[in-house]
Structure formats: structure tokens, C-alpha cells
Amino acid sequence: MFAKKLIHAIDHHHGQANRTVLSGYPSIRGATMRDKEAYYLANMSWIHECLCREPRGHSAMLGSIVTDPVSPTSALGVLFLHANGLYDGCGDSTFGTAAAAVETGVVAAVEPVTRFTMDTVMGPLAIEVDVAGGIVSQVRYENLPSYHITQFALDLEGWGKVAVDVSQCGGQYCPQIDAGALGLSTDKSNQAGIKAFGRLVNAALLARPPIEDPESGRMVQLGQNNANVISLYNLQEDGKSCRIANTSAPDFMGRTPGGTPTGALLALLHARGLYTAGTSFANISPVGTVFHVTGQGTTLPGGTPAMKTTVGTKSWMMGIHQFVVDPSDPFPNGFIL
Fold it and tell me: Can you tell me whether residue 51 is helix, strand or coil?
């Protein structure tokens, strides 16, 4: 036997790939999910480095790792992985993890709707999984409240003054730009244009002073790597759908509408009077995958008007893996180019 480590994982995608790690690792210790996050980073970072980086993963690979729950009513806990560490919350990985939990029996399937809760660093997530004939057709989860914060203008070379809104969802502060008003395509065919525009926006954001979150009082520097996703949106003529492209440093373009950017977009549209609470809205990615979302108005403890959104999509299983690490492998923790 030449395997130093043997790791069981299952892959799903909805345009974005997610690798859910189910077994082959020690217990992730901690009384809270934040404790478990700290323990994982101190002792088990080799897992996301090995599985999300090349050669087993790729630059856009996301992942998740299942833990014991910390809440008495939750079915499991989950930490959200990427090639360089952890996210506190990730909508894309939530969909893949929930599908994997039901399809592998970690959570018992109940037709037509399986309901359970997952513990995350951001708090418990309420999950609904539509199941028919043993097949998962859609996963939905309740997003953390989203709210619009501010609008300002950026002076971008070749574009002039460009209006930027900022909305918050799930701990992410999303700079939002009306790509339709600029004539900027959000289709995958314009990948180079989206990334180039994102670089301009990112540099301009880093040059600005921080903004203040009206709810928490936190000062937030926009444009930082993995902290802010720039959303370029194109509201469609029906008023019930949007084509959206998300980009972030360093030169990354999202494959899906994104769970947190979708919540943030609905908060912006509602603040602008362009979304009616309780109605269904379709957010469409550059590759054509769709997130369906509904929202209800709410008010946060600090008095900030907000939207509570439920986001859903279909994730397709694409692989069941037994990964191994050869003791002589020169890249046991993978690499990034």
C-alpha cells in the first residue's frame, strides 16, 4: 500500500465545481464552528491545499469539509474551503454540500422535501432539498440578511465616471455596477473584457478610503483579495431576471451568480424599487446556470433596512473520489501557478 493518506470526497457542480470532503481525516475539534475553523487551520490545512490546488484541483475549485454539528438541532457542520484557506460562508459550496449530504445518506432523504440545518462559522443555515425518485432536483438555503450600504462614482480610464453601489451579504461587501448601462457584456464570450474591467475597478477601489458598514460600524476596505466580489449586472427587459458576472482579484471570474452576490443584488434592486418582495427572481451566470431567489423585507437590530433571501439551484454530481497521497509525491499539498 503506497497511500500515505486516503480521502473520500464527492464532486458536484452548477457551473462552479465543489468538492465535499466526507472522510479520511481526524476529528475537527472545537465547541463552536469558529473553534473548529481555528483547529482546522492550525492542524489540517493540507486538506484544502491538497484537494483544491493543482494537480488534484484547479484555480477555480471550491470545497467543503463535513464536521460534527455544534448545535443540537443541526445535522452536520461544514467548513468552506478554497485553495488558499477558508470562507466563513459560501453559497456555491452550500449547494454542493447539501446535495452530497442527502445523496450519500449523511442526511436521510425525505420526499418531496428534505429539511435540515447545517452549522457554519456564520451561523446555522436552514436547508431544503427537493427529492423525487431518489434524485435531488434543487437545493435551497436561507441567506443571511443583505442590505444596501452606499453609492459613489469611480473615475475609470476609458469609461469615465462609473456609478458603484455597495451591498453586504454573508460577510461579503459587494461593489455592484450596472453593466447593461455601460454596454458591457456579462456573457462568458466577454471573459477577457470582464476581467480587464474588474482590474480597473479593483485598483480604483483600493485607492479609495474604507467605507463604514451602517449596521456594524465596521470600516471596510474595498478591493481586497477574496474580501469583495465585484458584481457586474445586466437587468433583463422582463424585470424578473438578470445576467450577472462576478469578478475578484486576482483576475478571477465567477462561474455562477454566487449566493452572496445574489443576496446583495436583491437588496440593491429592492432599495431601488426594482424588485417586489415575495416574487421569484432569476439570476443568470456567464455560463448560463441559474440561481432562483425570493426575498422578504426586514429590519436589522441597528435599524438598517434589509432583505432576507432564499436562494436555490440544481447541483449535478460529477464524481466520487478516493484521493491518495503517495509518500514520494513532491507536491503532497499541491501547488498554485
Answer: helix
Q: Is 90 exposed, middle or buried (0-12, 13-18, 19+ CB in 10 A)?
A: buried
Class of domain 5-142+317-325: alpha beta
C-beta separation of 57 from 49 below 8 A? no
Q: Do domains 5-142+317-325 and 146-299 have the same CATH topology?
A: yes
What are the extents of the domains in the chain? 5-142+317-325, 146-299
> Which of 83, 46, 64 has its CA nearest to residue 337?
83
- Cα separation, 256 vs 312, in Å, equals 12
Grid cell at residue 7? 480521502
Match 486538506 to its residue by C-alpha cell. Answer: 47
Q: How far apart are CA 216 and CA 199, in angstroms?
A: 28
Q: Which residue has the cell 460600524?
A: 217
Cα–Cα distance measured from residue 67 to residue 309, given in angstroms and rounded to the nearest whole number: 26
How does pLDDT run across 174-226, given as a tens digit for each residue? 999 999 999 999 999 999 999 999 999 999 999 999 999 999 898 999 987 65
DSSP letters, 210-226, are PEEPTTT--EE-TT-TT
CATH architecture of 146-299: Roll (3.10)
The phi, psi pair for 245, rounded to 5°, reads: -125, 130
Given a contact cutoff of 8 angstroms between Cβ atoms, the answer to whether 142 and 125 are in contact is: yes
